[in-house]
DEAD/DEAH box helicase
Amino acid sequence: MHSGIHQKTRTTRADDGGGVTADDGQVPVGVRARALLRAGRELLGAARSVLREHDAAQEEVRRAYGVLAEVFVHKELEGLPLTALRDVTRGQLREAALQALEAAGLASVGRVRDAQPYGLRQVPGIGAQTAGQLHSAAGQLARAAAETVAVRIDVDAQEDARHTSLVRALNRLVLAGPGIPEAVALARKTAEALESDLSAAVTTGSRVQWLLAGRRKRDQAGAALLRVREALAATASADVRMTLDQAVTDLLRGPEPADRAWLDFQVRAAEYYTVLGKVADLPEDRESAEGFIPTGIAEQVRAQPLDESLLQVSLRGYQAFGARFALARRRVLIGDEMGLGKTIQALAVLAHLRATGEGRHFLVVCPVGVLLNWIREIEGRSSLITYRAHGPGRHTAVDAWAAEGGVLVTTYDVLRTLEIPKVPLALVVADEAQYVKNPRTRRAEALRVLIRRPSTGRVLFLTGTPMENHVAEFRSLIGQLQSPDAHALQYGMGALDSRAFRAAVAPCYLRRNQPDVLGELPGVIHADEWEELSDGDRTAYRRAVGEGNFMAMRRAPYADPARSAKLHRLRELVAEAAANDLKVVVFSCFLEVLAVVEAALHGAALGPLTGAVPADERQALVDEFTAAPGHAVLLAQIRTGGTGLNLQAASVVVLCEPQLSPALEAQAVARAHRMGQVRRVQVHRLLAADSVDVRLLEVHRVKQEQFDTYARRSEVAETVPEAVDISDPDLARRIVEDEQLRLALGV
């Protein structure tokens, strides 16, 4: 703004407004200068108002967070024994001093810290020097706890003023909207551009001061006024004043009353925690957030710019890193554990490419059950345009997308029927990429054709279960990326050395786990509910074993509904949840089992959510379940309801039977236990003793070990058991044969 400005101010003449201008007409002086200065001060005032209100809102959050964090720190210190003080002081504290503290009732680090040096000196045997050492050590432990403790807002603590204060402080910023950070940045830039120039240009507002000023001062004042005028012109064309005024209005709107703020928190807790992390500058474990990838790759990813201007949602640190990883590495698989926001990371990549002009055409391929969710996310959280290539209007949508650009969203099955125009694809996103783990399927082939186009710039596979059953699935997904890094992955590598395998996939594979990056997420309580088969169920089970019918063996515990122990326990769990006003989602692999459950609950359940339910109706069922006041029950087939849908409203999950794949169970549980969940999730798996369920749990253990070795970070290289690549049909046959033998022997 300073360059290229002609600054002739030697002689003056009267202007039309009674003021004075330079002889070349460039620098207004007098009336016109005062008008410019007044407009500049008004704009500066608007910018300062935004900064002032935003700073006040942030300070309120920090203050409330500090008060609540102290509660968690104190609880942490209360659980630390006195020996921790000796460890901190490297053994300098005498054992007698610790015994004296315990005798005085100061049996934890927390109580020592609360006692303060004066209180410690009142303990017999504790002198001034020892009291100082004790208090200093307790303070050191408190600071360490403050850096590591996870502060969780307890939705059941609404009567606690400390929790409520933080929720309301956050509510003000959340209600202000996702555009506030951009408005604040604009306000800061505007203030920096105007403050010094308005002060330097003040001489131009008075004809007398102008005439009395020396040449150098007039030159400086004239140049400053010209910059003010340029700034005003630029801000007028960009509607900056309107943006600033709207931001102040938005910041002054909140917070809402406590009850409404709590309700809003429960609906969109993820946004509250995202804002909290940014405002309170909460520490993040960099290695965890970056998926423990090699240093060289991590540095490359950190250097990758990320334009968030088209996003209407704030990213967490690990999410921004995931988006940068996809941009920098170009063809990658993000295998974050379910519930960490892989969709948002993909959306950030799409928005960056569109904002920077690196592409106009984008394609998202997903299962039908999450089609509507993708469209909602794109339209609600970004400024991108979507086209739905599903249903009767799919070909029209493709034509419009090809002509106008934007994000085309379709399903794996529909993709096979579409003729995708030969436009450059800046990004192809394959959500729930495990759907194409078998490269010989038609859906995988249809996707591969697009990935292999020379004009396809980037490819992003998303799946929380990159390896459901065996290493070959993981190897297949990586190979389909058509990445130079994927080509280096030899077929037999996984079977030889898991460490070499992880090193080979590191350039194109990123995974983060919930405990590492979501410290505020409430825990999960897993309970295996073992029940005895009733006489009717046992008869059905023996008949199924005799017939070699694996699926009937798994359904047998529900064959006699009137006396089914599993069904009786399920009714108890639902009744308990109803008494506590909690929502429940019930998963089963079998439609017959869901029908039995629905009848047992006397029709007081939503669903069932099955593969036969159209995509729009699936989302409508989830919306109805979420919006239902208090207790509600949703029935879902595990492969349908356990994929892609967000069920954070549920805090009780019931699995009617164990699955062949532990990943399938984990995926179902993650529909509820994901970012945005505000309650501890209870997971109840119904199991029948002396049945196939026992063997399936052993299968789970083996498969989980394989996943931990290859797809999750692990320090220990393990060889693959001989049965790594066993197929589900082979596994089922083995289990049936084992059960036939067991029953024949009367074991």
About this structure: The longest strand covers residues 524-531. Residues 1-25, 491-496, 713-726 have pLDDT under 50 and may be disordered. Residues 12-63+163-263 form one domain.
